[in-house]
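User: Some background: our group keeps a shared notebook of sequences we're curious about, and every so often someone picks one and asks for a predicted structure to add to the entry. Today it's my turn. The entry only has the sequence so far, pasted here. Could you supply the structure so I can complete it?
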Amino acid sequence: MLNVPSQAFPAPGSQQRVASQGRSKVPLKQGRSLMDWIRLTRSGKDLTGLKGRLIDVTEEELKTHNRKDDCWICIRGLVYNVSPYMEYHPGGEDELMRAAGADGTDLFNEVHRWVNYESMLKECLVGRMAMKPAVPKDCHEGKRVLNGMLPKSQVTDTLLKEGPSSPSYDWFQTESSVTIVIYTKQKNINLDSVVVDLQDDTLRAEAVIKDHSYLIHIGLSHEVQENFFVRAIENVGKVDIVLQKKENISWKCLGHPLEKHDSFIPKKDAGLYYRKCQLISKEDVTHDTRLFCLMLPPSTHLQVPVGQHVYLKLSVTGAEIVKPYTPVSESLLSDFKEPVLPPNKYIYFLIKIYPDGLFTPELDRLQIGDFVSVSSPEGNFEVSKLQDVEDLFLLAAGTGFTPMVNVLNYALTSMSSLRKVKLMFFNKTEDDIIWRCQLEKLALKDKRFDVEFVLSAPSSEWNGKQGHVSPALLSEFLQRSLENSRVFLCICGPTPFTDEGIRLLHDLNFSTDEIHGFTA
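Assistant: Of course. Here's the predicted structure to add to the notebook entry:
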């Protein structure tokens, strides 16, 4: 799967940027673009040097392939000859050489977890890592029928001792329903923390608990209706998934376990999971930005937490392209609009169309009724960071406004401590300002909210602020409602904007704990 990172991905302060210590793109030679790599992988050229054979690779063999002209890397058990890809890698050759002749899974997860490498490097696949002999399991355990809680021995061994307690699950039934209960052993679990997909009587339920992922993956023993119900009992950390039987018969067992069932692993080690969503509508917001509405499958429960994003996946010229986007609400002014579509079944995106891009023109060409693959939520922002905050400052440039939409809605509806929330919105021209009318109406409607627009290339009629992010602009903007009020700042935009903004905020004596940089 080919992935085109946006200019501001990963964002400063994100796990990817922190882990990679400020890793940035390296200028590529002419003829070494993404499309050039696509053409090379389709040319029929032997990129592995093995003439189409797949081999089992031992650790000893892997270690010997550690040069630029002979570089093998292991990612999640698969070994790739990345030497042909060296000159096409946006992060440069040195970045790839950090994992030369070794298992690069941890490095990959830190820097590129969002990249689906299997398709992008499929023509470079050498084979799998040779398996070490495993200790035989008790044969009786292998024959156990899945029926409620599994023994603790089947919980993955990768759980860190200092991590959260391992969840468990059970199930019970009535004449017409089956309820699966997840005991997360963590309070304050909510519906945002759980993603459930039901397809062809296969149930996949993922609960995100702190920085870990707990997965239930079951082939159900009987057919169920496609509609189901999910509820979270926050004060006891319990999640119920209620399935409706197609036939009112008694189930002797829940079903059989599928891949990674009952696993509890760090979220960064869990692969991305996609489901196909249907395009319901798209409308112009500015001259180059559209509001897309996608409908989730009826058999999916997915609510994107505030400040998190998903990945959209499309097939472009035969290759799969993935891009990260932050969902937004349908409108900033829900009170002024009649609800057209039921909540929690639709996801909205504000997306700028780049005429010379690979992904967004293809997205813009989709017809109503076409499908887009959407991943489960990702991101490291936690709304707990906003607890007791009195002054919330939002700095956005261009489509860096999108993460601010749900933060703004959350602040005005759920933060009892909030005194003031202020948005400084940077754009080139007035025509580029997303939802300008809505923002101005919201400021009139709610006195706790202020918005300031800053243009870098205004017309002669513009009477507002001008320029780029600067100490002068920020010093005036970042005025607290009280002298010692508790503050938090969010920033998002192109990488230079975000980097410079964070540097200036530090110069103004705001701490790292008071700043969050979003992915644009």
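Suggested note for the entry: Residues 25-129 form a domain with the Flavocytochrome B2; Chain A, domain 1 fold (CATH 3.10.120.10). The two ends are 21 Å apart (CA to CA).
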